[in-house]
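FW: tagging you since you asked about this chain on Friday. Here's the raw sequence from the shared folder, copied in full. Didn't touch anything.
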Amino acid sequence: MTNSDPKDVRTGSGPVKPAAEDASQSIGAVPRRRIAVAEALRNNWLEIWYQPKIDLKRKCLAGAEALARIRHPELGVLLPGDFFPDVVDDNLAELVQHALLAPLLDWTMFEEAGFNLHLAINVPASVLFKLPIPRLVAQYRPSSPRWPGLILQVTEDEIARDIALAGEIASQLRVSGISIAIDDFGAGYSSFSSLRHLPFAELKINRSFVSGCATNATNAAICQTAIDLAHRFGAVVVAEGIESNVDLQALMVMGCDFGQGMLIAPPMPKERFLELLRNRMSKPRAATPEPARVAPRPTGRVA
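HL: got it, structure written out here
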């Protein structure tokens, strides 16, 4: 299955510009009032948008991160900051379940467009430990044998609070084709002693370290250390928040596996993302190998 022009690291002939309906167009200087998630769910205002993830070594589209948005009839598109801080536990679980099912149901459309994408969603640790994720995935997962599984992104500080429980949950999820990614790596406070027991298949470098990594020696050192560390653990690395070509090139030299950010493409509605995929497939290009999958580690711990 062809995925991308091997000579182009971006999702098109140039950076994908935010469409008029994108979140960046709906956020103005005027403060926005917050919308309750319960209200959004009740009125079907919740949407799942996708931000492309690029394989920096093969230079092709390899996956996408699913992100929650609320499309309010009067306020327009709202980012998580406009609704997430006020989410109560019950509504949070319902929100995560909605976000979990969307990429499972949408994946088949992306495959039909010619792309075998590894999709990821953000899951708070509290919901990861409570929601019946294996059952939901077993019920709604794509039937295609090509489905590469699902990535659940949990922030470093959250997953490090209970390493033993995280290991147990990761083992259960692995059977269902689900792997764990440590999100915002570098922003938390996990020690190397605990880090070696974290059950992760993917590590996402916090954007604050990615930004300026080509010119800032400290950020460069942190990114390189994170990349080397993850590779030694048998995991892959994603640099998030890439916004400049020089940082992108620096990360590629460091050996970073995947990248995402506004330089590559912004988050976009499912219809826009699907249009992008179809446009890519309609352009003549040389065949490329299948995108690298995130291979789960054989056990939940590293001795």
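FW: The domain at 23-282 is CATH 3.20.20.450 (TIM Barrel).
HL: agreed, and The mean pLDDT is 81.
FW: great, closing this out.
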